[in-house]
Amino acid sequence: MKSQLKHAPLALALLSILDAQFSTAHAQGSLAPPGIPAPTMKTLDQIEPRTPITNTGAFTISAAGSYYLTTNLTVSTGDAITINADNVTLDLNGFTIFSTAPSANGTAILLNNGRANIAIHNGHIQSGVVTDGSGAFSGSGFANGIYGSSSLPIIKNVRVANVSVEGCLASGIFIGGLIGSVVESCTVNIAGDYGIGADTILNSTAIACGSTAISAIQASSCRGESINGSGVSATVAQNCYGKTTLGVGGISANTANDCRGESTSPTGWGLSASIAQNCYGSCSGNSYGVFAAFSANNCYGVSASGYGLLVTNIFTGAGGTAQNCFGIAANGTGLSAGIAQNCVGSGIIGLNADSADNCKGTGTTGVGVSVTGSANNCTGVSASGTGLLATTGGVAVATATGCRGTSTSGTGLSANTALNCAGTSGTGTGLSADMAENCYGVSSGSGTGLRAFGSAIGSYGRNYSNGTGLDAYIANSSRGTSLSGAAVLVSFKYNMP
Fold first, then answer.
1. Are 381 and 367 in contact (CB under 8 A)?
2. Start-to-end C-alpha separation, the chain
3. For 99-120, how does the pLDDT look when each residue is reduced to its tens digit (9 = 90+)?
4. Rounded to 5 degrees, what angle do the CA atoms 81, 86, 88 make?
């Protein structure tokens, strides 16, 4: 005990020294603040800088800014929201604009003339107009969904996105003026006039429309279905589907790429364009499945009694070019073009062209392949008409080279000049030409195997029944055989076997 007490003063001294060192190394700063504390909470304008629309009835936007709905909005007549200022963004915020007008009138969102830099998005417009499918529209609600007049001063730079519109007596979404207006990812169901009209329309759908369903300078990935008008009408249509029930056509465009058009109208076309590429068109009436004024490439057209695929300039009458195309018309012409390359046609007349290369045509009662200029490496088949016809009415300028024609009861192949060709017929003439060289003709009935009104050179005609094997005015290095008829009927023979 005495030993412990003896060392107590020394321990206290050491603790005093350590405490002083610790306090110096970890000195506390000044407790005085630098100034008055600033507020840390944000204002309501900072949290939500937009203007809420709390009205449950009609509302007019008269100043620039960003606006948003906080609830559904309903009017009993007239316009619901009027935009009378530039530089406005309207967010429907997922809510719906309704009209209870017993007779449709007014507009859900109206853009006054001359407005610019407007954005409308994210909501719904509900109206009560219906259609009977024959072109008649009636009911309650709005006349228009979103509408901007095309009158002067023109509306500019308007964007509408993610809005659905249903049951309008006139237009679903129509932005007049078509200057810088864009409609994207919108839907319209039942509109008595235009479905959607804008400069550019993307990824949108309009169905059951009285007039044009989709009307744009550029339409991409859109679907339009019209009763009395066009399904899709655009300067450029890309990856679009258009249909008309009683109107003029499924798709109308200057340039159509990867599009499909259909018409159930008696006089409407499936798809019409100046230039068509990778397109399909069909019509159930007497019009054309696919029409192209200048060129069609990789297209397929079907028509009940018109043209399956037609390429021609309707103003000059000059034919255009069809490449890698197919046309079928049960009671019409399968494919018709100025120049046909690698094409197939089937119909009463299978394929008709000024010139055809590597083509095939099947005609039921008419010509399989008909050309007025030249046919190269083509095949024509007909039941009772001419399988392949290359002639201009007796003037020896139409030429068939490397071609084959077959007919059940008509002429297999007929040409002004036939080179390296073959023609077969059941009961008619196998091959008929003004001049035939290195050709082969067969008839299985009472017709002529090969007939040359001028000369037959290096050719062979055969008849399997009682007809003539070869009939020519001049024959050189040619021969003919017949089962029971005349083998050859030749006026002048040279080097005959």
1. no
2. 153
3. 999 999 999 999 999 899 999 9
4. 60
Long-range pairs for 344-350 at CB < 8 Å and ≥24 separation?
345/308, 345/309, 345/369, 346/308, 347/308, 350/380, 350/381, 350/382
Is 314 or 55 the better-scoring residue by pLDDT? 55
Burial 316-354 (b: 16+ CB within 10 A, else e): eeebbbbbbbbbbbeebbbbbbbbbbbbbbbbbbbbbbb
Residue 30: CB atoms within 10 A of its CB come to 6
pLDDT at 4: 45
Report the candidate in 151, 155, 161, 150 with the shortest Cα–Cα distance to residue 119. Answer: 161
- Spatial distance between the Cα atoms of 129 and 218, rounded to a whole number of angstroms: 29
Place of tokens 């095309």: 150
Q: Could you tell me if 444 and 426 are in contact, meaning their C-beta atoms sit under 8 angstroms apart? A: yes
- Name the residue type at position 189: N
For the chain, the residue count is: 497
Q: Phi-psi category of 315—alpha, beta or left, where left has phi over 0 and alpha has psi -120 to 50? A: alpha
% pLDDT > 70, the chain = 89
Question: 3-state class of 180 per DSSP?
Answer: coil
**How many other CB atoms are found less than 10 A from the CB of residue 46?**
8
Omega before residue 49 within 30° of 0, cis: no
The amino acid occupying position 264 is T
Q: Residue 17 phi/psi, 5° resolution?
A: -65, -45
Name the one residue in this structure whose structure tokens are 């109308």. 252
What's the chain's Rg over C-alpha atoms? 40
Beta bridge partners of 170: none
> Which residue type sits at 135?
G
Distance CA 67, CA 56 (A): 14
Of 11-20, 57-66, 174-183, the one with minimum mean pLDDT is 11-20
Query: What is the DSSP track for 352-390?
Result: EEEEEES-EEEESSS-SEEEEEEEES-EEEESSS-SEEE
Kindly report the CA angle at 320 between 381 and 349, in degrees rounded to 5?
A: 25
Helix, strand, coil in percent for the chain, rounding step 5 = 5, 55, 40
Number of Cβ within a 10 Å radius of residue 27: 7
Q: For tokens 């009158």, what's the residue?
A: 151
Cβ atoms 423, 412 nearer than 8 A: yes
Collapsing DSSP to helix, strand or coil, 47 comes out as helix
What is the identity of the amino acid at 170? A
- CA angle 479–484–490, rounded 5-degree value: 35
